[in-house]
Structure formats: structure tokens, C-alpha cells
Design a protein that fits this description.
Radius of gyration: 20 Å
Shape: globular
Distance between the termini: 56 Å
Order of helices and strands: HHHHHHHHHHHHHHH
Strand content: under 5%
Largest sheet: none
Oligomer: single chain
Low-confidence stretches: 374-381
Number of strands: 0
Number of helices: 15
Amino acid sequence: MFIYVLGLAVFAQGTSEFMLSGLVPGIADDLSVPVGAAASLTSAYAIGMIIGAPVMAVLSARWPRRRALAGFLAAFVVVHVLGAITADFVLLFATRIVAAIVNAGFLAVAMSVATALAHPAKQGRATAVLLSGITLSCVAGVPAGALLGDWAGWRSAFWAVAALCLPALAFVFRSAPADAAGRRDVSIRREARALRSRRAQRALVLAVLVNGATFATFAYLAVIATEVADLPAGGVPVLLAAFGVGAFIGVTVAGRVGDAKLRPAVCVLPVGWAALAVAGAHAAPLFALAVVQGALSFGVGSALVGRVLRVAADAPSLSGAFATVALNVGAFLGPLTAAVATRAAVDYRAAPWVSAVLAAAAIGVIGVRRRGSSRTPRVPR
């Protein structure tokens, strides 16, 4: 039950992270800033997640788990209230960075608690419950935030996220397991050594490449829909929701099978992105591939988080944080690479080609791992 409470909080935080895409015009108009400046709020959140995950994981490693979870979640509520009432864009920008930092801290602690509470055979499912909060935010939270922003202004979406966190905060205070205390014997140096193992490093690189491929196209999915497939503007939320539905299915399946089917799924990813680049000009295949690629991408991403936690079991305080960093590095670099490619090609379909290349590179990383693992040492006679 407690893991689902954490999932509710992750849902609220995921909604906050992604909802800016539908609120940019309203923020720009209300605060009298250029659209590009308002759009930079998304980058601010990604940077905050990348910086915040390892820093907050280290700082909170010895805190009681209940205090850490409640503190991060309470800070998340406060900065959203500040964001909802401010008329200063600089302060709003700062609240996005702080929100991302405490979000990263909460997610790192929540992952360690979820895996500690779950039976070893069900740790993948526990991780999937947390990550399903993010995928559900894509399906329901982000469209709802956009509709609320259109109906009552962008500030109402910030108020809604703060309100959504309150029940989770109350449950954390009441239901956090008493034995989930911070570890007093934490050795950051020892945990860092565990994360430098080849298996952990490969899993983290895979997470960067796969999530980079995911967000290289996701960032341009709305533009591909309207400018390439000639869909009406009203079709964009439906397309994004279709991608989110696929993502939820993928995370749910990954939670049941773990990383056992990781290699075949990664091998299919570049084919799907290439198919979207070729057939994305037509509505039917665009919608179908959005569901398929959403399922594969988020399913593989969820399995990779589980793999990082498993192969870096000697780094219980930092493994979840660095998995979060890897995913967000990919989410930051993927759209950046796609922006360069689409500008050079003068074609938005260059974005899924970037995704195909990044996913193909992930296959190469898996191939290196398999070749390395197949070399068994000779036994001297």
C-alpha cells in the first residue's frame, strides 16, 4: 500500500515536470517574457533533476526515511505555491530548479525504500509502480494540466499540483514504515565504487541512450503531428495521450518480467523509430507507432532502472539517484541533438532518425556486454 502512496506523489511530480509544454504561451503572456524564455523553464527542471539526484541522495542518506520523504514532498508543495503566486519570472525559474532538485531527492529515496520493502523477486514491480506514476502523468496529468491552464490560467495548474501532493504527504507522515530509517553506516566512497563497476556503467549508459532516443522524438511529436501529418491542433493531445498509454503498458509489463527481455526490446527500438520517421506523415501509422514506441521506450527505461538497482546493490543510497540522473541526461541531450538535426535537415522527421541512431547505439552497448561476458577464462591444465 505504501508503495502506491509513493506512486501518487511521483504522479504529481511527473505532472509538474511535463505540464510546462502546455502552459508556455500563458506564462509568456502573463509575465511579459518571450516564448523562448518561458520554454526554458523545461530545461531548468531537467538541469535541476540532473544536479539534484546525486546531491540530495548523498545529503539524505543518513536521514530517517520518513523525514526525508516528507521533507522533500513538503518542499515540493511550497515551491509550487510560490510559483503560483509570483509575478517575477526569475523567481518562477528558481522555483522550477528547486522543485526539480527536491523531486530528484524524493525519487531517489522512494526507490531505495520501495526496493528495501519489496521481496527481491518483486523489486522490479515495486520500481515499476513508482515509474508508472510518471507515465500516468503523461496520460492524464499533463492533458488535465493543459486543460486547466486554458480554463483557469497557468497558475491554476501549479495550485493543482500542490494540492495533489497533500494526500501523499499526509500518508507519508502516517504510513512510512517505522523500520525504514536512514543507514548510519553509509559509505559514499564504497557506494561510488559499486557504481563504477562495468555492469552498472553499461546500464547507466544504456539508460542515457534509450531515454535520449525517447525524448528526441517526444519533444517533436506535436510538431510532427501538425506540420508533417497535417493533424488538426485538437489531435495533438490525443496523440500524446496515445504515447502515454503505450508508456503505461510498457512500464506495467516491465514490472512483471524485469530485464529478462531487455535485449530483444532494445533491438526493436531503432526499427520502430525509423518506421515513425518514414511513415509519420500519415495519421494511422503515426498513432500506432506512438503507442508501440511509448510502450517499448518506457518499458526498457523501467527495466534499466531495475537493472541499475540490481547490479549496484552495494550502492542502495546512490543507485536510484544515478539511474534518475542517467534518464534525465538522456531527456536533456536527446531533444538538444534532435534540434540540431531538424535545423540542419529542415525536416522535423529528422528527430525520429536521431532516436533511431541513439537506440542503435544502445544495441552496440549491449553487444559489447555480451561479447565481454562470453569470454570465459581458460582453465590451465
